[in-house]
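Appendix C reproduces, verbatim, an entry submitted by the partner laboratory led by Prof. M.T., so that reviewers can inspect both the input and the predicted structure.
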Amino acid sequence: MTGDGKMVAGKGAIKLAKLRDLLRTATVGTNKKGIDAYIVGSEDSHQSEYLAPKDQRRSFISGFSGSAGTAIITQDQALLWTDGRYFAQATKELDPPEAWTLMKEGVVGTPTQASWLASNLSSQSNVAVDPNLISNMAWSAINASLVAAGHSFLPLEKNFVDLVWGSDKPGMPANKVVGQPLKYTGKTAGEKVELCRQAMRDESVTTLVVTALDEVAYLLNWRGSDIHYNPVFFAYVVITLDKVHIFIDQSKVTQEAKQQLKDEGVDPQYHPYDTIGMYLKERSTASDGKTWISNSSSYALHVSCGSGEINNKLHTNITPICVMKAIKNTVEIKGMKKAHLKDGVAVVKYLAWLEEKVKSKSEESLVTELSGAAQLEKFRAEQEDFIGPSFCTISAVGAHGAIIHYAPSPETDTPINDREFYLCDSGGQYLDGTTDITRTVHFGSPTAFERECFTRVFKGQCALANAIFPTMIKGNYLDILARKSLWEVGLDYLHGTAHGVGAYLNVHEGPMGISWRLHPDDPGLQIGMFLSNEPGYYEDEKFGIRLEDVEVIVETATPHNFKSRGFLTFECVTMVPIQSNLLDKSLLTDQEIAYLNCYHAKCLKKVGPLLQGEANQQALSWLQRATVPITR
C-alpha cells in the first residue's frame, strides 16, 4: 500500500516472501524456533468490522479488500477464509492468485481455521497472532484446538505484517470528536453510565471495560470520523462504581464535546489512548473486585485484566451498553423513521432520474455504476442533517450484482442499461439516524427465470416482514421465513438475512441478527430494535437480486398470548417502492399482493408530500406510477 492506504498492484508475491522470511528467522516459544503459521485477521484492536487504513493488514498482505476474512500464512501455503458474500470478490482480488487458497466458510467440507491448523502443521509447531487483533473468544477456540494437537499458540506484541508494511503504513487518524446532542440521543451520558453501574451492581462487578468503538460513542454521546462511513473514534472507556476513565488522544476532542459530557453528568478522568493495557493490569493487580469485559474484546486486554490467573475474576458477557444501544429509545425511534423518510426521498429521486436516463439511450444520458452512485449521493446530500454514506455504495450491473459486496472502480465501471438487472445497495448517515436500502431494478425485459428469482426473493422478504413472533425469541429462528420460497425450488443465498442498524452509528450493529448462523450473543428480539430484511439470489457471472428494507420491532395484538409472553412483529421504515412489474404474479398469494399494495400506498402517502414543486415533478410522477396497486 501507499501512504494513503491504497493497494499497490502486483506486489503480493514480494510481500508474502518478506513475511515468510520474518517468520522463519523469528525465535519464539519454549522451543525458540521460527513461526510455522501466522494468523492475520480482519480486526483492529477494538475488533471493528470496518477499519481505518492503518488497520487493513489482511487486505495489505492478501490483496482481498472485503470486510470479513482471515488469512493464515505458512512457509508453503497462504489461505483465506471468508463467507459467501465475498467468494467471487476474493477470487478476483487475491494477489498473486496462484499463491492463495480460498477457504469457503459455510460450504460443506470447508474446515475451520483451528481444525486446519491442528491437522496440517508438523508436530509441535508454533502458531502466532497479534493478541490485540483477535478476540478472546476466537483465541480460546483456536488455542484449545492447537494445544490438543500438540502445537503452541503464541501471542506476539510484534506485528509482522506491520514490519513488512514499513514506513508506508498509514498513521492513526486525528479527526475531531464532537458531541451528539440530546435531541438526537434521547438519553444523557450520565443516565447511560448509571444504567451501566446498576448492571454492574447486579453482577457484583466493580469495573466495566468498554472496547467496541460504537459502544464508546453511544455511551458518551460523542461522534467522530476515524473510520470511513462509521461515526466513531478511537478510544476506550473504563467505568468504575465512582469514576469514568476515557483513554483517548485528548487533542481530538472538541471543548464543546467535553463540556457536553460534563453537562450530561459525566466528569471523566482522561488517559492517553495507548495506556489502556497498563491501566487494566495495574487495576486488576491492586483490586479484589470483579471486572466485566466482553468476550469479543481482544485477548490482550483480557490478559491485562487477569485472564488465565488461578483466581480469575472476569465477567465476560456482552456489555450492558451493547443491548442498551440496540434497543432504541423513543427519541431514537423517531429520528430513525425521519432519517429513512428523507432517505426515501433521495432514493426515489435517484430511481426516477436513472430510469429516464437509461430509457433515453442517448450518449449524453449514459450513466455508469460509478456516476450513478455519485448522483445518488448528491440526492442524499440535499436532505437535512445528511453527513455522508453509511457504507460504500454497491452499484452493480448484471454479473457484478452476483458479487454480493461489489464495489465499482474505474477498472470495472459498467454502463447501467436496459438489458440487465441493476442492484443498488446504499445507505446514508444522518444526524438523526442511519439508513440501509437495496433495490434491484430492470429497465427492459428480464427472462422468465430472472422474474421468478425476483419474485421468490420478494416472497421471502414479505414473509419475514409479516412475521409474528414471541418476545425474546432469537433471530436465528426466523431465518427460514426469508428462504422458504427459494428453498422450494433449490435456490438459496450465502449471506445472513438481517443485521441490526445503529442510530447515527454503525450500519451493521449487534448483538442480534437473523441468519442461518447462530448469533451467540443474541439477547432475543425486543421492541425498539431496528433490523434489515434482505433476502437475495445470485447467479454467478450473470446477475444478482437483493431487496432490503430496514424494520423496527413493534408490539402486535394476537388472539391469544401464550404464557403472557407478548408477541411482536416488524414495521417497515424504508419508504421506496419495489418494482412490481418484475413480479410473476402467478407465484404470489393474495396476502402478498395485499402487503405490496399496502406498502406502496404508505410510500406514496409519506414520500409524495415531500416531492412537491417543479424540481421534484419527475420523482413524484415516477413514485405515482411505481405505487399503482397490482391485481391478478
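Residues 178-324 form a domain with the Creatine Amidinohydrolase; Chain A, domain 1 fold (CATH 3.40.350.10). Additional entries are available on request from the coordinating office.
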